[in-house]
Write a structure and sequence with these properties.
The relative contact order is 0.15. The protein folds into two domains: 218 residues, 2-Layer Sandwich (60s Ribosomal Protein L30, Chain: A), CATH 3.30.1330; 184 residues, PurM-like C-terminal domain (Phosphoribosyl-aminoimidazole Synthetase, Chain A, domain 2), CATH 3.90.650.10. With 432 residues, the chain is of the alpha/beta class.
Length: 432
Amino acid sequence: MSEHPIEAVPTRCGCAGKTSLDRVVRPALDEIRRSAPGVAVVDGLEAGLLPGTAEVERSVVDGPGGGNGTSREFVAAAFLGPECGSDSEAFRAVLSETYRQWAGMSGRATIRKGHSIQLETSSEPTVWGETFRSSGQQRDGYRAINVDVIHALPGLDPVAQATVATAHALNDCYTQGAAADRDIRPIVGHPEGSDIDPDRVRRWYVAAADSGVTVREPSLVAHDGRGWQFGASVLAATERLPPIHTGRIDAGDEVSLHRPVGSLALYAGSVDGEQPVGSDVRKRALEALTADHAPVARAIEASCPRPGERFDPERHLKWAGDISGPGIGGLAEITAAAGCGLSVESVPPLDRRGLDAVRRRWIVPDVTVETNGPIAAVGTADALDRFERRLAGCPSADPTRIGTVTGVSGEFRPAEGSHAERYLDGIERRPR
């Protein structure tokens, strides 16, 4: 096997080219909830949450019901061709059939976290899954579980690819304040016929992960599309109540972003022959893509209530999540769910000159769409002051208050002088 066997497709880079949430994913999941008996699909959380027990048994799905008839909690990752990935009914049919099979032997399948990745060329859809079963003594807190897969980034060796993919998958767990007992299973998609060795894949991820991270045997997914994909199914633990209080969000709350945006756009815009950004900017972008945000997770955990402690809006975060796939625009959905709106007052660029150079040629016009993106936090000004002080010791942190929650339901607008429309595709076309 060659040392660098990775095929990257420039039009599919990191989180680019994801299946549309609004047009495809959500309508399909709504129909599955209505029509698939024994199947429950959990939505609205950054990571799936399991009770905080001493052990979690994990197994890759190898047949209906996970192969043992007892596991009921699943994460799922779908590898799709363009036709299935652009048609809600086709997407629903693929997921529904698989989820029904998983429910077949256990009687019920709860999908705690789902993810889909769209291949550039026609490919038969494949749905990969893993089951989790909590066991052992009950402990305080929760286990956060997640699955994510991204397209290979041009110009990176396999260990760097694994580093980005691992950090990106863990990021959703980190938003829940979960950074303890990290346990990952590598997932690598590859074109059929690729000479791929599972032991070598595991070594890539072991080299990529912190010494305290458990790396399990990898899952390899062969497909008839182009390019490689790197990802992971992950879990991590927190001893506190995660910041999932969207119902508490109110007008006057503020939004903080833990670091500037634009790393994926800057990196992707610097890999072709034109080189619109300098090597120093490309290096900073790669550092952001590979950064492990575990210290941010610990700051989030410290900003959440202890078991039995009452929620205090002046001390505790109301919500936290990463902005990777949807970009900053995804925050508008969070505030809308609370019956509020969002005024965007600042979009902090990782490198303003570099983003100005690449934004018109970047395949996602919204340069805040990220891979392993910044973590956003919502809360009162006092709670965010406390949180940002805790970020002082985090190597990747450079927090900015980017907006204020408004009392107008569904509102998503740029504040005067923010220049948000320069970087957020379509912000001016959203309801005011």
